[in-house]
């Protein structure tokens, strides 16, 4: 006679294992989707910051008939704006915003005057009296936002550019798509369109005067940070 009190063999059935695997898959999918949404949100915020600076730059020119940062310090002081007289804009007023690529993320050249003008006029937020490198804005991913007006060009193009540093490959790709639209089949978009960029060991990576080489956005192989620049004036 079988012992009815014998211990029953325990274990998971195939159905129970399948249910657990489905739940794990859903959780992983939710995590990945959440990460993607966060990255997309950061990319949109950075693009919005860059376009806001573009709008402020053009509004300033329309309102004051001058390039922000290119005016004499005395001109800005005479408007009653706070700041260090004789520092930003002291050699300006020549119709060109002179900020070399090397000065993009150091807040040198005429860039202190650029931020002083836009902040004092209320077109962008920030302290107009702070002319240090620490006064440069930071974007949602923690990198710097700077301006380049190199007479030799920025990434092979002339004009004034707003640039963002310290970007991951995923963020650089998302920003490129947001500004210039879908990438071509080869996934190379850093050397075409309104947005140009490069990846390298420096952080912040200084934009070059030469056009960047075409590089496919590869999140697996590219671990160095990106700098991207969008032209705000021709």
Largest sheet: 4 strands, antiparallel
Shape descriptor: elongated
Please work out how many helical segments DSSP would assign. 4
Overall mean pLDDT: 86
**Which structural class do you get from the secondary structure elements?**
alpha+beta
Radius of gyration: 25 Å
Unreliable segments (pLDDT under 50, ≥5 consecutive)? none
Distance between the termini: 96 Å
Helix content: 25-40%
Strand content: 5-15%
The total count of strands amounts to 4
H/E element order: HHHEEHEE
Strand order of the largest sheet: 1-2-4-3
3D structure, described in words:
The protein is an alpha+beta fold and 234 residues long. The chain has one domain. It has helices at 14-64, 73-78, 111-120, 169-180; strands at 145-148, 160-167, 195-199, 226-233. Strands 1-2-4-3 form a four-stranded antiparallel beta sheet. Helix 1 (14-64) crosses helix 4. The longest helix is centred in the first third of the chain and has 51 residues, at 14-64. The model has no long low-confidence stretch (mean pLDDT 86).
Topology:
Layout: H1 14-64, H2 73-78, H3 111-120, E1 145-148, E2 160-167, H4 169-180, E3 195-199, E4 226-233
Antiparallel strand pairs: 1-2, 2-4, 3-4
Helix pairs in contact: 1-4
